[in-house]
Structure formats: C-alpha cells, structure tokens
Amino acid sequence: MTSVSPPAPTSPIPDGPIPASPAVAPGRSQARERHFRTARLVSGLVLMLFVAMHLANVALNLVSIDTADAGLEWLTEPWRILPAKILLYGAATVHIVLVLRTLYLRRTLKMPGKEAAQVLLGLLIPLLIAEHVIGVHVYRAITGLDVDYEFVARALWIDSPATGVKQVFALLVIWAHGCLGLHFWLRYRDWYPTAAPFLLIGAVLVPVLGLLGFAEAGKVVLAQPTPPTPDAIMAERLATVYLTKTAFLNLAYAVAIGAVAATLALRGLRQAIARRNLIEVRYESGQVVRVPRGSSVLEASRIGGIPHYAVCGGRGRCSTCRVRVTAGSEALPPPAPLERATLSRIHADPSVRLACQLRPTAPLTVLPLLVADRERLLPAGAGRARPGREQDIAVLFCDIRGFTALADHRLPYDIVFLLNRYFAIVGTAVEKSGGRLDKFIGDGAMALFGLDTSTAEACRQALAASAAILAELDRLSEELAAELPAPLKVAIGIHAGPTIVGAMGYGDTMHVTAIGDTVNVASRLESAAKEFNAAIVVSDTVVALSGLDLSDYEAREIAIRGSARPLHVRVVPQDAALGSGFAEAATQSAA
User: Fold this and answer.
1) Where are the domains of the chain?
2) How far apart, in Å, do the first and last CA atoms of the chain sit?
3) For residue 579, pLDDT beyond 60
4) Which residues are bridge partners to 353 per DSSP?
5) 116 near 312, Cβ under 8 Å?
6) Do domains 25-273 and 389-590 have the same CATH topology?
7) 5: Cβ–Cβ under 8 A, 6 or more apart, which residues?
8) HSE on the CB side for 518, CA within 13 Å?
9) How many CA atoms lie within 13 Å of 264's alpha carbon, on the beta-carbon side?
10) Taking the CA of residue 128 as centre, how many other CA atoms within 13 Å lie in the half-sphere pointing to its CB?
11) Is-contact 401 412, C-beta < 8 A?
12) Using alpha carbons only, what angle is made at residue 315 by residues 284 and 116, rounded to the nearest 5 degrees?
C-alpha cells in the first residue's frame, strides 16, 4: 500500500474515546494524530520511491534485457542492503497498520469517490503483489540462484501469462494508489496548480515506460528458443519452490483478508459499543443526528446525510465548515490551538466553532454558517482547485468610455467585432505584462497582477499593461477611423493591497479570482477616471510600490465608501498616457 494521503478529505481521523480532561485532550489528540499522519506520509513516500525505481529499472528493457540487468545494481540492489531492507519492510508494515487503523477509527465509511478509490486500491495491493514477491524470494532461497529480467519475463510471458496480466494490473493499481495519495497530500500547496501538469506527465510516463519495457522483454524471450529441460535436481528444487510458494501465498492471502475482516469487525464492535452512549447533534433546520460521543460535528453531518462544506477536507485549515452553536455551548471543550488560530483569523465570535474540530461530549444545537448545495458537498471544482488565501496583489479595471452610446447606432455584428478586438488588446497587454486576465464584464475587464510575483513587481506590471492597452487602442482607433465617430477611449483604475484569492464559481465557470476591498477600490478608481475625463487613475500605494515617478501628474483625493480617510491618487490624462514619457517609464519599470 503506497498511499501518502493525509486523513480523509471529508472526514478527519477521529480521536477515539474522549479522555477525561477535555481541556487538554484536543491538543494532545491532535498532536498524536499529526504523528500518525507523518508516519503514514513518510512510509508512503518510501514505498513510492521504491516503486518508481523499480519501474525505471523495468523500463530499461526498452534498451535491452542486459541493460535492465545492469540497472539492477543502481535501482534495485540498494534496497537489498540491510538498512534499506529494514526501511522498506518497516515502511510497508507501518503503512499497512496505519491504513487499517484509519479504517478502524472511521465513524462512517461514506467518503468521496477519489478517496474511496484510493482506499480500495490500497486494500487490493497486498493480494495482487503477494504471488510475485513470495515467488521471487522463495526461488532465491531454495535454488540459490538470483532472478534476472530474462527469468522474470519468461515466467510471466510464457510459463504463466495469467500471472503476467495480474502483475500488470497490480502495477497500475499500485501506481494509481500512490499518485492519489500524493495528490491528496500536495493539492493545497500554493505551487501545486502550477506544478500539477508536469507531475501528471511524470505520473503517466513512468508506468507507461515500465509497461513498454516489460512488453519488450516479453517479445525478446518469446523469440528465443525453448530452454533445455532442467535436470532431476533442479526439477526437484522447482517442485519444492512451487509447493513452498503456494503454502506461503495461501498464508499471505489469509493474513491479508483476515486483517481487513478483523479491522471491520472490530470497527463494528466499537460502533456498537459507542451507540450505547450516543449524543444528539441538532440542526436549526430541524434535523437531528445521533452520533457516538466524541464524533465531530462534521462527521455527524456526513452520517446524517446533511450537506456540509469542508473545502480543506476537514483538517481545520479553512473555515468553510464553521457552525454557530445555538444551544449546549456550556458543555463544549475549548478550541484546540489549530481551531483557535483559524477562528481568530476570521474574527469569529465565541459561539462560532469549526465543525471538523468540534467534538461534543453532550447534546448541542448548531447552525451551519455556509449552506451547501444538497446535490454537491463541495462547490464545483473545489476538489481540483487550491483553497482561498490572503495575498497582496495589484488589480486593474478597464472600461470603454461612452460605449453605450456607441453601441446604440451600430449593428450587433459590428459591436461583437469591435468588442472582440478590444478584448484581444486588453488580454494580450495583460498577459504580456505578466498578469492574469480575470474576467470581462460587459465592455469592461478586470485583471490581476502578482499571483506569482511580489507586490512591487505586480504594480509595475499593471502600469505597463495600462500603457500597452492605451497604445494599442489608439492604433485600433486609427485603423477604424472611418467607422468610428470618435477615437475609442478607456478609463483605467489600478490599486494594490490585500485580497482573498481562490477558486470561485460553479461548474465550468470555476476559476481563480480575487475579492476584497482592494478589488472594490480599483473599480472605484476606474469610475473616477471617467469622472476626471482621464485615462488612468492610480493609487499612491501602487505608485510607491512600483518606484515609478508620477509626481508630474495631478494628485487628487478620492472618497472611498466605508473608509473615513480619502485615498490619495495620481490622475494621468489621455494625452500624457499616450505620450512617450509615461509609456516608456511604465514599460521600463516592469522590465
């Protein structure tokens, strides 16, 4: 089992019986679970490394069987020295035991499809690889001979093709299980969305090359003449190998199946005992779920089939599962450090708790603060996108001035043509400057800068993009001068500051965007540019961070709704924005 996943994405690993002292139990149990997760992760990574090296060795058969045999020295032999052997078999044992422990501790076996696939694939792995592993070790021990790739290819392609097919299936199962584990572990890292395509290439390429190498070795041995019949002594040893392998294989199957069956039986017994001491979790909607004492509120929702958001997978890293406790709060244990830190970041009042971390020991009533769609437990695409995070970025808003009047006297086809030319100008300018085109809103556009760079660099990029937009739009006006009553003009607003960045939307419209006061202020500056009949209104925050000298341009103060203090800005008129001075300065600052 080569899983490297953290606990269940929709249900954290339960802590078992609640210790006597609820004031300290949550912190201790969380620390204990972190140790178990770390052990499971490290053991999974060790096993994944072994499998990757083994596949690389098999892939060398694409060159020749002799090359693959030579590769054993570097890719397989290192695992046969005693310390590495202890590490490998220890990792396998630890990983299997911890997977069974997780299965035993689950309050419910309901889980998302990807996680269910990972668990089922992991449970299949020992049954699939037992024959190959036991066969190789028994053959070495009884015959005293080593196993090379010609022997393996002949055994799996000629002597027992059915076993060969099973090994190919086992290979795919092991690799898929490990890759799912890696995905669950890495998916919330900020760099993961960027690296994911390259990791996917590796995840596909490694097993494909391994399978091609296995197929090539099979072609070679099938073309070779039939080897001579073994002598009497070797025949007797091979018979002993078969009998011994069969005995150990039956034992391995019995142990593997028995371990899973025993785990499920003990889990059932544990659940039966726990049902004698159930508590009620009531929801303001009127639903009531009876769960064993010590279950989390999120687990209660899962058990009761009540939709409940948990974007981070129930690990206390987000606040989407938060609930307001409307009754029974006096008997609750205080928040553990992880929960307390998350709640403090959102300035939650004392009645708000994280459902994934709250494990009541007495009845209570809760109100989920984020209502989930009954058909989907997570927002569309939430499983594939990174969660929200605070980030300082630069935001640019751009809008065509007087577009409504322009559109009133033109054919729809002409309007669509003109808008697409304008959108292409804005999109190209933003992307070439290093920004991300967020969305088009009517004839307006919103762009983000600094998702992967510093805020200072983001401000320089936004200014460079604004200069490029104005220059290209001026060229478009000249090109269409005969068709336009007046040159096209835009109003641009730029501001920088803290935002919430994350994947938002539904279905195919899910994409990374930003929300917050900074976005609202940038939109307000774009409106101010129209009021001032200017091309660009940029906040002093952006000017200072960019290092661009705009002291020659008019300084103004703008009232911002919800803020007692006015915002200091610089106003860049149309003629100045198109002049060489501003364009060159903005472009050079972003270079």
Assistant:
1) 25-273, 278-368, 389-590
2) 50
3) no
4) 323
5) no
6) no
7) 40, 44, 115, 118, 180, 181, 183, 184, 185
8) 26
9) 7
10) 19
11) no
12) 90
- Asked if 112 contacts 187 with a C-beta cutoff of 8 angstroms, the reply is no
DSSP string, 233-301: HHHHHHHHHHHHHHHHHHHHHHHHHHHHHHHHHHHHHHHHHHGGGEEEEEETTS-EEEEETT--HHHHH
Query: How many H helices and E strands in the chain?
Result: 17, 13
pLDDT at residue 436 is higher than 60 = yes
| Both tokens assigned to 83 | 């310390």
Q: Do 589 and 463 touch, CB atoms closer than 8 A?
A: yes
Determine phi and psi for 82, rounding to 5 degrees.
-55, -50
Q: What's the helix, strand, coil split of the chain in %, to 5?
A: 55, 15, 30
Rounded to an integer, what distance in angstroms lies between the CA atom of residue 257 and that of residue 126? 9
Quote the pLDDT of residue 198: 92
Please state, in angstroms and rounded to a whole number, the distance separating the CA atoms of residues 209 and 60.
Answer: 9
278-368: CATH superfamily = Beta-grasp domain (3.10.20.30)
Q: Give the pLDDT of residue 584.
A: 60
d(CA 71, CA 54): 10
Q: For residues 98 and 49, is the Cβ–Cβ distance under 8 A?
A: no
| 17 in Cβ contact with 141 (< 8 Å) | no
Angle at 190 between CA 189 and CA 192, to 5 degrees: 65
Structural tokens at position 125:
């792995």
Secondary structure element (H or E) that encloses residue 567, with its range? strand 567-572
What sign does the dihedral 443-449-455-459 (CA atoms) show?
negative
What pTM was computed for the model?
Answer: 0.54
| 29 exposure class (CB count in 10 Å sphere: 0-12, 13-18, 19+) | buried
* Domain formed by 389-590, architecture: 2-Layer Sandwich (3.30)
SS3 537: strand
Does domain 25-273 match CATH 1.20.1300? Answer: yes
pLDDT category of residue 452 using cuts at 50, 70 and 90: confident
Grouping H, G, I as helix, E, B as strand and the rest as coil, residue 34 is helix
For residue 95, what are its two tokens?
Answer: 């990983």
Average pLDDT, the chain: 83
Closest CA to 215 of 153, 163, 136: 153
Distance CA 7, CA 150 (A): 41
Average pLDDT over residues 110-119: 72
Q: With left for phi above 0 and alpha for psi between -120 and 50, is residue 82 left, alpha or beta?
A: alpha
Burial of 3 (0-12, 13-18, 19+ CB in 10 A): buried
CA-based radius of gyration for the chain: 32
Contact between 467 and 457 (Cβ < 8 Å): no
The closest of 476, 582, 591, 497 to 539, measured between CA atoms, is 497
Which pair of structure tokens corresponds to residue 222?
């099938």
Q: What pLDDT is stored for residue 28 in this prediction?
A: 52
Cα 185 versus chain centre, distance:
8
Output DSSP code: residue 516.
S
CA neighbor of 239 nearest in space, from 166, 116, 139: 139
Q: How far apart are CA 461 and CA 458, in angstroms?
A: 5
Q: Using the 8-state DSSP alphabet, how is residue 379 labeled?
A: -
Both tokens of 482, joined, read 């005969």
